[in-house]
């Protein structure tokens, strides 16, 4: 427990340093922040334009898709904000910067995840939160305790699952330096996938993102329950509540992958 | 007390090279090969050798960044690879060619982070900071962003950062590389003070002057093996190393004749005289000044690579 606390504390200390370093270039920070907000906002405009021509997509109305969009955006956004820079691992190994991080009395994962931390990456979760609030308002749902629980579950487990994907798949870079795209396609690609209803995708893909990369648990399955919709895969209802277990398992697997990678690095060097 | 102990430590790397269009050939390189030595607390040891000899690999194993392929390794009683984080609090590391300071932030911020990462008590931190500021003359630099510091200033900043937590061992990798004469002198002076205060120092360098002024003991590593362990005089004797007196005469002339020295090169009015490294240059200079129209002269220290090369030649020849 003390170890975990130190992992978080050391991450926070390093992240605060990066944040302070960014203020050395204030204008550039403001411009980049504005640009990311703009790009994020335009992202949802694409959906709005689509719905200009149709009022349903795969049988889902716009506010329903807004619920998916908002929860997916928050999940990837929060994970990316906290530890997204882990994807630069391969480059750090190549330049030898990882060795410098290993000299600090702190877990390597905390140090790598805190690298180039910036508040700018809050743009995505902020925009996703706005969309989510709008969707919840427009849906006019009949709230019951299980729906509240499912929503809270999505907001907590979603970031954990994406965080596990960031860390677990980045660990591959310990063995194969150019594996960055593998992780990027699962995380950023996966988040784009989750913005759309599962009904528009092929069955094989759905199986893949349920039992392979467990993206379906981030928001698809809980949202089906909240909206009272049928599951295109016909999975038992209990799966819709399984996100905490899946998130815990994914985080555990990611931790093991990271350890294995770091051990291999330290015993092979490069 | 033995602070660093290596017992037949080896480290191999697997290197893949292309062999044909698709095939890759793998072969093993021994960066460190059955290395054994101990360093007692309070020693200052120069760890030298040609490029690629295994110096950095050794340091990486001593800090716990790399796991040895074979052998036993202990620093301050612990296995570095197993207890990297705990050991990190007890050692200080300075890489001459890579700073650990935060580029865009004032030096003070990097120190403040060290205080919290190394959990240095406030009173001890204040005392150590004061000592570093005084000895390294950091007073004006503390509030300057690191990117605006000169190389010498940054090296002093790095040295300070490595010592705030009172490490038992200080590893230095080329601490004087690229520095001007004055900065080198300052760094050496500081290291002398640090060592005198009880910190064990292990430094790699290409500059024999660093060794001469700081280290009572030199270890030479080549091809991953320890080929010499002793004092500097012993190294010069083993390598039959020579210093060079460069003499500029008023006009070109025949080779200079001076007792104890021989001319190794003549180019116009400039001549190079070699003499044994342990011998004083003064009598030779006096003899030359006495008999030749002298304009200028300088003494060049032996180069590590040459000393080591001659040591091998000596070992093979005799």
TrEMBL record, chain B:
It is found in: Cell membrane. Residues 4-248 form the ABC transporter domain. Keywords: Antibiotic resistance, ATP-binding, Nucleotide-binding, Transport. The keyword Cytoplasm does not apply. SUPFAM superfamilies: P-loop containing nucleoside triphosphate hydrolases (SSF52540). It is a peripheral membrane protein. SMART domains: AAA. GO terms for cellular component: plasma membrane. This is Methionine ABC transporter ATP-binding protein.
